[in-house]
Amino acid sequence: MRLLPAAMLVLVGLACASLTIGAASISILEASRDPWAALILMQSRLPRTLAVILTGAALAVAGVVLQALVRNRFVGPETTGTAESATLGLLAVTIVFPASPLWAKMVAASVAAMLGTALFVAVIRRLPVREVMLVPIAGLVLSGVIGSVATFVGWQTDLLQYVNGWLLSGEFSGVLAGRYELLWVAAAAAGLAWFAADRFAILGLGDNVATGLGLSPASVMRLGLAVVAVVTAMVITTVGLIPFVGLVVPNIVARIMGDNLRASIPVVAVFGAVLLLACDLLGRLIRYPYEIPVGTILGVVGAAIFLWLLYRRPAHG
Amino acid sequence: MADRRVMLCLAAVLGLVVAFWMLQGLPSGQARAFVLKLRAERLLGLLLVGISTGIATILFQTVAANRVLTPQIMGFDSLYMLMQTIMVATFGIAGFSALPTGVKFLGEVGVMVLLASILFGTLLGKGVRDIPRTILTGVILGVLFRSLNAFVGRVLDPNEYAVVQQASFASFSKIDASLLPVALALTAGGVVAALCLSSRLDVLGLGRDPAISLGLRHQREVLASLAIVALLVSVSTALVGPITFFGLIVAGLTHGLTRSPRHAALLPVSAMIAAVTLILGQLVFERVLGQAAFLSVVIEFAGGLFFLFLLIRGRIR
Amino acid sequence: MIRISDLSYRIGKATILRDISTELPKGALTALIGPNGAGKSTLLRLIGRLEPLQTGSVSLDGADLASTRTEDLALRMAVLGQQTAIASRLRLRELVGFGRWPHHRGRPCAKDSAIVDEALAGFALGDLADRFIDEISGGQAQRAYLAMTVAQDTDWLLLDEPLNNLDMAHARALMCRLAELVRGSGKSVVTVIHEVNYAAAWADHVVAMKDGRIVAQGTPHEVLTSETLSMLYDTPVTVGTHQDRPLILHHV
Q1: Which single residue of A291, B26, B297, C14 has CA 20 to 30 Å from A257?
Q2: What is the pairing mode between strands C63-64 and C14-24?
Q3: pLDDT for B38
Q4: Which residue of C50, C95, C148 is in closest CB contact with B212?
Q5: Rounded CA gap, B90 and B82, in Å?
Q6: Which residues contact A240 (CB under 8 A, 6 or more apart)?
Q7: If residue C3 lies in a helix (H) or strand (E), which one and from where to where?
Q8: Candidates B61, B213, B216; nearest CB to C48
Q9: Nearest CA-CA distance, residue A304 and chain B, Å
């Protein structure tokens, strides 16, 4: 169990780097004396670093939960239509009740995300069990369909800019104090997943096993869907679509330490935070002082990792 | 033969639709010849797109042993858009508009066919006979291209971005007449090759083991089929832009109408259904509703719904 | 005669077959037996060119597997692997009809449909001929695949666990049919069998495999002995005799 402390150490190192790197050059050490540096640190750098860590951790945990629910390693919250459904929910609320408060929009997005994920689960339950590769394909096509519906509606209602803001490459450059706190909700949902880790691990073994051990598969499923939906909806609305974190991080952790979720969820969370923070830093540094959205960086990095996973591990799920 | 009757009926319907397309509301006098020529060109474009989409989808579904997939999910659309973005980024708006259309068309088709051949050749040629995994690789590469597209898109100014957006929307109205001879030759080549394979495709549909036992060179036939698919999809994408789900409707209707699994019947039927659907749709939208731009959107939307319907009905195989 | 020389096969780091050299007699019913994971199916699939050869060679009546055209091999041997669902929605008659494909390459004639009807009748599928594959039971589908293999009308038939999904009566009928093909029509059959008593009752030649090696081969009386079988399956086995054939008892 030296994995967790080591990963934590890396995360702390990256977090320190994240606090020091940015368009404005300030020194954190002088923040206590320099009010300008303190302002930047407290209003921009710290919130941003926290936002990245919360997002990465929550998404990775949501990925673990989703993979346990559908018993397939090649899915993540970004490849199952969850994110697109959340966008559709947001869009619907924005069109029907333009003046609704933020929390109402969040609830709508979460409910829509949950419905979309439930649709995906219902669909893949009908697939032949041995078709491991068909599950992610079905998920990707499903998210494509829902995404194109969202794009069409957005185009018709002149809200395409919003839709694109949610669906295209998430980024953290707009994160300031007061504009990221919803991510704490996502982190809380991920914490709930840790609390219920054993239930998800058992459900991952199959409905029959779960029933045999006295769990209700349907209620565990609902809990899991709620966690995945809340995490995805909060992330989508705050920073946009972050691909691949929920897909590849659980895979990497499972390769190292297996599928005992109670033990692995904290590691998954830290790994997710590390991956996202590293990509975010990369995005800040490549064209300094301009930024490349972390979603774009992850689209490239994550796709590469995913392909590697696809060909490294044997074809069983 | 029930199949022959279906084919004759479809041919008659196609003839009627074509006649209506050419002759409806024809002006008299000098304008007549001009309108006829214009309509004939548009007709040829729609026929080419319809035929190549129908045949490519049937071929792909046979090779993939799956009836809910279309070849377009394998990243052809995002590759096409990435090429548009790169061209605009490289040449600027003026340069992009000044590109000779024939060269641009051949270049696009060439790049798409080349990349697809490399992908299929390396994955299936080395004895990886896991076709779903190959498809998933294609889908993930599509995500990669989309991310790269977003990345390059960041560099563009808003005007250039608008040009890319314009080029990235599928439109059946913008077919360039000067491309038609080349497109006709390529499509005809692909269609003839597919028809020559049709008896072997029947055997391919039995699955790998039975096909080999019956003396089919399984790997070679799979590669040949996928090469034809790549060619046909590339031609139609380069002609009208990305269309993802249209083929799904066509294939669904084809399997519903024909009784037999023989490709000698499936291929022509699918081509005719696709052609009739496109021409009829264009007629209705252009001359009745007066909103030609919507056809592609509506077809995509209907295709997406049909995909969901197929999945929920459980008709995976 | 099928001649196998120095055949080895590995998947990744796992060795599935080690240096197998043997001959399978023509005009006989050969049974491959052995515990799970012994390499029986792999050996059958290699002979049937369903998997590419890695090292070693296989020849079929003198024709080398690696250098003979696969189209020609299809006229000499038919292989039935273990079933996976197929994509095409086929009627039974159409499926069995594909057994004739190596002969007509897409242009069937009257003789082909006569052979298909005969094969359907031979497996008691005549009444189901116009049903779709996905509308019949697993055992019926298994018989349909067998009928397709027989309709291919080849000298050699290679079958991977053909008794899967078959009830007692149909399993017995299948073994009868295979024995009849061997004795009556001079065909040669090689089949992987899990239930050793079927091998004892019907086989002419038995090949026992364990851990990727052949541990015994010969007539049923030579191979199906108490010592060999107890060693093969790591389980105490008693062998008696019934109607001049070995009878293997392992239930007590």
Answers
A1: C14
A2: unpaired
A3: 86
A4: C50
A5: 12
A6: A165, A166, A167, A168, A169, A170, A171, A293, A295
A7: strand C2-11
A8: B213
A9: 8
Q: Which of B64, B198, B203 lies at the smallest CB-CB distance from C98? A: B203
Q: Can you spell out the DSSP letters for B1-56?
A: -HHHHHHHHHHHHHHHHHHHHHHTTPPPTTHHHHHHHHHHHHHHHHHHHHHHHHHH
Placement of tokens 């697109």 in the chain: A84
CB contact, 8 Å: B35 with chain A?
no
Contacts of B244 in chain A (CB under 8 A): 144, 148
pLDDT > 60? residue C111: yes
Which residue is closest to B215 within chain C, CA to CA?
A: C71
CB-CB neighbors (< 8 A) of B199 in chain C: 101, 105-106
Inform me whether the pLDDT recorded for A314 exceeds 70: no
Asked if A136 lies within 8 A of B136 by C-beta distance, the reply is yes
Which class in CATH covers the domain with range B2-7+43-313?
Answer: mainly alpha
What's the fold here for domain C2-85+153-249? Rossmann fold (3.40.50)
pLDDT in tens, B4-22: 888 999 999 999 999 998 8
Q: Determine what percent of chain B falls in helix, strand and coil, rounding each to the nearest 5.
A: 80, 0, 20
Tokens representing residue A283 in the block: 């995005």
Per-residue pLDDT, averaged over C18-39, amounts to 93
Q: Which residue of C has its CA nearest to B214?
A: C74
**Do the strands C63-64 and C245-249 form a parallel or antiparallel pair, or are they unpaired?**
unpaired
Rounded Cα distance, A11 and A257, in Å: 19
Q: What is the mean pLDDT of residues C236-243?
A: 88
In terms of CA atoms, which chain C residue is nearest residue B126?
C52
* CA atoms of A201 and A67, how far apart (whole Å): 10
∠ CA B172-B177-B180, rounded to 5°: 90
Give the best residue of B135, B143, B145, B149 to mutate against chain A (max A CB count within 10 A): B143
Place domain A46-312 in its CATH homologous superfamily. ABC transporter involved in vitamin B12 uptake, BtuC (1.10.3470.10)
Residue C114 has pLDDT above 50, yes or no: yes
| CA distances in angstroms from A129 to B43, B234, C164, listed in the order given | 45, 33, 20
Residue spans of chain B under pLDDT 70: 1, 125-130, 290-294, 297, 308, 311-317
Angle between helices B263-283 and B2-23 (to 10 degrees): 20
Residue C58: band (very low, low, confident or very high) from pLDDT cuts 50, 70, 90:
very high
CA dihedral A46, A49, A52, A56 (to 10 degrees): -120
DSSP B244-276: -SHHHHHHHHHHHH-SS--HHHHHHHHHHHHHH
Residue of B nearest to A296 (CA): B147
Residues 56-95 of C with CB under 8 A from B: 70-75, 78-81, 84-90, 94-95
Of A127, A145, A243, the CB nearest to B304: A145
Nearest to C86 among B127, B205, B255 (CB): B205
* Rg over CA atoms, chain C: 18
SS3 C209: strand
Tokens 């024809």 locate to: B26
Q: What is the chain A residue with the closest CA to B151?
A: A296
Percentage of chain A surpassing pLDDT 70?
91
The verdict on a CB contact (< 8 Å) between C87 and B255 is no
CA atoms within 13 A on the CB side of C175: 23
Of A146-155, A225-234, B181-190, C90-99, give the range with the top mean pLDDT: B181-190
Q: How many helices, marked H, and strands, marked E, lie in chain C?
A: 10, 12
Nearest CA to CA, how far is B130 from chain A (Å)? 9
